[in-house]
Structure formats: structure tokens, C-alpha cells
Amino acid sequence: MKYIQDFQREKQEFERNLARFREDHPDLIQNAKKSDVPEKPKTPQQLWYNHEKKIYLKVRPDATTKEVKESLGKQWSQLSDKKRLKWIHKALEQRKEYEEIMRDYIQKHPELNISEEGITRSTLTKAERQLKDKFDGRPTKPPP
């Protein structure tokens, strides 16, 4: 207990000193620069997870991160093909927007030497591509 109390006391003293330093020397503090590189598009599962996580946390606000991940992971694996397809289409729309934004970004920043190959990489897994092709009416590939 003694060491914990000593730590708490020293931590509070450090935070007070840091606050005083920041007030006395605002010119020395560097603002964290936010990168202007566009954010990569999310996968269908990530989009679905972010959407469902908000709903799950409203129902169970006391749930831990681990519980949320496990529960939503099971739900995703049991999700019907039609519902998955909805998220696949959203992911593809995001990817198209990302590609346009990245092309503009590359033109504005030619010094970065970013190739166009990296921006066209798919966010879909093989199973998701096959599901999309199936619903689009494309025939399945014959075995080799």
C-alpha cells in the first residue's frame, strides 16, 4: 500500500508540474500534426462491426471489449448472405471513393512517390468476392 500511495502522490505532483510548465512555456509544446493522408477503406466486416457495436453497447453498456468482439464475431459468422452482401456493397462504395480521393492526393503530393497499385488493392476477402459474384450472376470458376 505504501508504494501505491507514494506513486499516486508523485504522479499528482508530476501532473501539477507539467501543467505549470505548459502554462509557462506554451511555445515549446508541439501540436500533434494530424496526417492528411486519406484513411484506408474498411472491410465489410469492419463496417458491420462498427455499426453493430454501437447497438450492442446501448443494450449492454457494461460489456467488456472482449465480450463485444466475441459476441459480434459469432454474429458475423452466422450472418445471412443477403445481409453480408449489403455490407460488401458499402465496402465497395467506400473503396471507390477512397481511390478517387487517393488519386487527387497523389497528384497534389508527387514528392511522395506513391504508386497507383497500392490504392487499388481490394478490401474483400476471397469468400466475399465469391459471394458478390454469385449474387451478380457470374458463373463459378471451374476447377483447374
UniProtKB/TrEMBL annotation:
Q: Where is this region: Disordered?
A: 117-144
Q: Does the keyword DNA-binding apply?
A: yes
Q: Where in the cell is it found?
A: Nucleus
Domain spans labelled HMG box = 38-106
- A Pfam family cross-referenced in the UniProt record is HMG_box
Record's signal peptide: none
Instruction: Report the superkingdom from the record.
Output: Eukaryota
List the stretches of this chain annotated as a DNA-binding region: 38-106
Q: Which GO terms describe its cellular component?
A: nucleus
Q: Which GO terms describe its molecular function?
A: DNA binding
Which keywords has UniProt assigned to this entry?
DNA-binding, Nucleus
Biased composition, Basic and acidic residues: where in the chain? 126-144
Q: What is this protein called?
A: UBF1 factor
